[in-house]
Amino acid sequence: MAEIRNPNQQGGQDSKTVLIFTGIFLVMFLGLQFFKQQHKPAPAAEKPAAAATSQSDTPASSEPPAAAVPGASSGVASSVQAAAESTTVVENELYRITFSNRGAQVTSWILKKYKDDDGKPLDLVNHSAAAKFGYPLSLYTYDAALRGQLASALYKPSVTGSLTAPGTLSFEYAANGVTVEKSFTFDSSYVIRAQVTATRNGSPLAAMLAWPSGFGDQQTLPQYAGGMIDTAQGDKVEQVAYKKVVGGATQQGTFAWAGVSDLYFTSIFLPEPGQESQFVTLHNTINIPKNPKHPEPNQTESASVLGAGLGSPTGTYSTRLFVGPKALGVLGSIPTDGGPNLEKVVSFGWWGVISKPLFLMLRFFHQHLIPNWGWAILLLTLILNVAMLPTRFQMMKSSLKMQRIQPQMDQIKQKYAKFKATDPRKQEMQREIMDLQKKEGVNMFGGCLPMLIQWPLLLGFYRMLGNVIELRQAHWLWLPDLSAPDPYHILPIFFIISMFAVQWLTPSPGVDPAQQRMMAFTMPAVFGFMTWNIGSGLALYWAGSNVLGIVQQMAMNKTKMGREVREIAARRAAKKAGKVINARR
């Protein structure tokens, strides 16, 4: 908002206050950028992966001992394998999943309602990473050789060809003393139900159903850097960013849900209530082109690939699995059997108390008033600016009161000018100034409090617009994607010009003219640089706020209070200029 960037300063101290607040804001903003993981990730330690079955670093410890199952046979199972490789395509209105009986795993997971950057249906399988670290719904074991055996084995499927949901697809495999049964049930939602039973030499085998290799929408380094691990145990929800994820680390306990996400999509396991589960986190690295549109063999960078797996030490377990968009409406419709709502997978961070209500308002406008996200953002911008209008008046009123008593304050300061800053009599000066302000009803923080109200709103808006999938590939006029920077930089340029206009129109009595000119040029340049590479949805909000700020400031300047503020500013500027001329003479 315009007033965030140039409140009516009050005296020389207020100009310093504004600079301090601006510095604090810049630190907070850049901090958010850092925590948004737009820096190049440090390569995680990783063992060389020569085969497609290497999914994660193998921990130093051996596989946890499996719990005994009463009545389990200790004999070697007879061989059960398919004669040839085959595929089964499962489809409903939301997805089209292609299973291969080699590994009984997924080779393609198309989301029909979403597109990739080339406008094709989005495949959530990250094929380049999956070829190295494993495909979705493969089985993860701590024994790399066994993991390779399970991923390359030809399972016997119950259905080949095509299967329309609702329905069930099962796979069986038995060889070399290892038996595995995997069963998947599909309905009309994004949720599938999986059941797994695994044994080795008749004893339970802890083989975890895995989503090991990130997501298919991850093409650039910032997209990989959006990866995180999400878990919920009891009422505790934890989100671990990619830098802190340890490959092969295992948690054991009762999970409400657990899985892996990127910025816009997620794969979340929802075990049976009360089921004791093992949850493993996977962290690998892969070299990706610096320019995915025009890849060059020598122009690559290292990206972190996250994955996760869930199973049971008993070797037999059942879980639901949600694979789909991180849309609040979709996530909120998934029952969690008393656990935390899946909406918490959307990472609003500390600003969730502000960001989520803002998004709900934005979504309401889009659904019921304006079926375009860009216009909905501008409508919300208008409403927020109108709601914040009283703070603009409060800032001007506080500024006017301060300027009215400024001559008296100058006299008090002149009275004590001969004393050093460490002299105790300087405290008497401060008391006299505070008594004068109290007498005249001036609050020295009156111009700062409105900013403290508006900045959290701005940061919450920033966090919201950067994390909601609804803005992904959302069009507005010339902008093809409101979640991405303006490809033509029209919005940042307009933002700089409009912010300069706001600075020029806003009176700043008591501020040195040279300093005022410096701020009029410096602040638009700094904030314009910010908008150059942020999502155009946020840049649209800022630019819209500036336009409204210009209109509001022009109207306020014509009021009696506005005219008086400008007259005081003009008198003080003329007086200061006269002193400078006399000094030069």
TrEMBL record:
One GO MF term: membrane insertase activity
GO annotation (BP), single: protein insertion into membrane
Membrane insertase YidC/Oxa/ALB C-terminal domain ranges (all copies): 373-558
Residue intervals passing through the bilayer: 17-35, 372-393, 441-462, 518-543
Region (Disordered): 45-73
Key words of the record: Cell membrane, Chaperone, Membrane, Protein transport, Transmembrane, Transmembrane helix, Transport
Record-given protein name: Membrane protein insertase YidC
Organism name: Acidipila rosea
Lineage of source species: Bacteria, Pseudomonadati, Acidobacteriota, Terriglobia, Terriglobales
